[in-house]
Design a protein that fits this description.
Layout (H helix, E strand, L loop, with lengths): L6 H16 L16 E2 L11 H10 L9 E2 L8 H4 L8 H5 L7 H21 L13 E3 L2 E3 L1 E2 L5 E2 L3 H16 L17 H29 L3 H17 L5 H4 L3 H7 L29
Antiparallel strand pairs: 1-2, 3-4, 5-6
């Protein structure tokens, strides 16, 4: 068990270690690009009278029951092989998230969650200039729009930068609260700690999903897709290990999760060297007299 008086130092050391190994030094280059946008399906209206009936049937099949046209599914650039194969580490992330026997569970969750908060906040900051109220008028990921709920439970639709600011401000407040994330001797984790960790991880997933859906082009232009891929895979493996986020929440990114979280293929066996010929054994020569 980790001694309570060492919690703060251990947590900072753990965070710095992961930040150094999994993020490295960020360099900025490339031009800005436009974020993905929803596209409407084009209706195939025919100018020939004989095809009007067929066109009407086809158009009905492309609409929802309420008569609105179903949006076409965006091409997901982040699923292309040239991008998914890029990582900054090549070790098994499963081994990285497993609870060590000598570490308290709550301490392990606190240390990892704090580190993920720092990493995701840093990753978002690299593209924050492209995430504005004009480019991201809602906090979206795939076909999902995330709404913010204030302390009174009031539902609010806000822009993506506003939503991310709400998330980061809330998480910053929680992880620096000594009553929730204790670092001093004699302090215990609250009974609500597990639910708070799940709440934080759910919000952090929203930010990661938005990064892929709305700002992957900018991430590629900055040559940071390897960092984002590694961070996402590490986060998903972690929350799955401890059941921190409902699969119904993360299912919108299951296609990416299956690619990035799949076990790395074993390295090819080293070529076997040809058997060496036995060295001649020395012989005793007898001299006749």
């Amino acid at each position: 068990m980790v001694e309570s008086q060492r919690r703060g130092t251990w947590r900072k050391t753990f965070s710095k270690f992961v930040l150094k190994d999994m993020v490295g030094d960020y360099s900025f280059s490339g031009d800005s690009t436009d974020m993905h946008s929803q596209r409407n399906v084009k209706s195939g209206l025919s100018c020939k009278m004989v095809l009007q009936a067929v066109g009407k049937v086809l158009r009905k099949s492309k609409t929802k029951p309420n008569g609105k046209k179903a949006p076409a599914e965006e091409k997901k650039q982040y699923l292309e092989l040239e991008f998914t194969k890029v990582r900054v580490v090549d070790f098994d992330l499963k081994e990285l998230v497993v609870l060590p026997r000598e570490i308290d569970l709550n301490e392990w969750l606190a240390s990892n969650t704090t580190t993920f908060f720092n990493l995701i906040n840093l990753q978002y900051s690299t593209i924050s200039e492209f995430c504005t109220g004009e480019t991201c008028q809602a906090m979206t990921a795939c076909s999902t729009i995330y709404y913010w709920y204030d302390e009174r439970g009031k539902k609010t639709k806000c822009t993506a930068p506003q939503y991310v600011d709400f998330v980061m401000s809330l998480v910053q407040k929680l992880v620096t609260d000594e009553d929730i994330f204790p670092t001093k001797y004699g302090k215990e984790f609250p009974n609500s700690f597990d639910s708070l960790i799940k709440k934080i991880c759910r919000f952090l997933f929203h930010v990661l999903a938005h990064l892929y859906w709305a700002h992957f082009k900018e991430t590629v232009s900055l040559d940071l897709q390897g960092h984002l891929n590694t961070l996402y895979a590490h986060f998903i493996v972690f929350v799955r290990e401890f059941n921190l986020v409902d699969p119904k929440e993360t299912c919108i990114m299951d296609d990416l999760s299956e690619v990035l979280c799949a076990p790395a293929p074993p390295p090819p066996p080293a070529p076997s060297s040809p058997p060496s010929s036995p060295s001649p054994s020395p012989q005793n020569h007898v001299t006749e007299r």
